[in-house]
């Protein structure tokens, strides 16, 4: 099958969405399909070395400066899509290139499948500090966009239920993003502990995400003093960059955490397994995650997770074999401490880990997406009420 993926976010931008799209592209291509990415220009992209990637002129997205939106390009995209003989459009954004992808599908009369990644109600502060767009606008926009596609993919049951509450009536498939188990479980050539002069006996906690308000990294810092009272030599690696970095560094000083915290900055996706493998626990205090890609990356790399309680994280953790969940930020420190003190059954953990890893593999992810494509194709008819 010849597939066109339309997305405003792709490498070299670092995000779970970009990783998810790359994973899907690689797996589909390994299975003999042809995949072309239609995305935005990026000042850090090396377009001469890119293969099967078409970029459209773009500008930064409001105050979310490291994300971009395309300016026009729909006619160019249609021309390219016809030359490629695309049979399926897969949009991964509700904005510029998502609309372009829908336009191309309508003009070519081929199906358009959409993956809904982001709970935008948690990100409204990026647009005029939340003074213009309201949650009600998000619901209307999401309902309209999703119902004008031929099928929706969501990464979790939580996201599906939210879309249903918005009034989305199009068929929805829950397909969690998979991870490349070989890459993440392979022993890294880098020894992060050695590089940072951290002893093998130190407890190391890892935060790996964009340093932004919705990721709630402040909660991790506020939990550290209590954790340090129990484990005085514990360290935390804060991997990532973003608009809240300076504020977090200042908070670190205010809480006297300078000796315990390492602000590593942004790292390449190919290097994240080294950081997972250096840590005893991956800790995430965000409640805005729809797919929790870093959770399954950590588990695949052999690192237990601490995360906020929800149906998705509970499913991943399997009653404590792979970490623990907590309800409120006040419980975070004690949850970390209790998990570190808890003894485990290694045999049972190995059995459960093998079962879970099979379910979250990139191979299974691509198979389920391909099955959904086939289902959409089997039921597809050109009966649109209108076109762009």
Automatic annotation (TrEMBL):
Name recorded for this polypeptide: 1,2-diacylglycerol 3-alpha-glucosyltransferase
PANTHER family found in the cross-reference section: SULFOQUINOVOSYL TRANSFERASE SQD2
| Gene Ontology molecular function terms on file | hexosyltransferase activity
Please give the InterPro entries that the UniProt record associates with this protein. Glyco_trans_1, Glyco_trans_4-like_N, Glycosyltransferase_grp1
Q: Does the keyword Lyase apply?
A: no
Organism taxonomic ancestry: Bacteria, Bacillati, Bacillota, Bacilli, Lactobacillales
Which Pfam families is this protein grouped with?
Glyco_transf_4, Glycos_transf_1
UniProt organism field:
Pisciglobus halotolerans
- The lineage's top-level taxon is Bacteria
The Glycosyl transferase family domain is annotated at 192-348
Keywords for the protein's UniProt record, in alphabetical order:
Transferase
Q: What Gene3D superfamilies does the database record attribute to this sequence? A: Glycogen Phosphorylase B
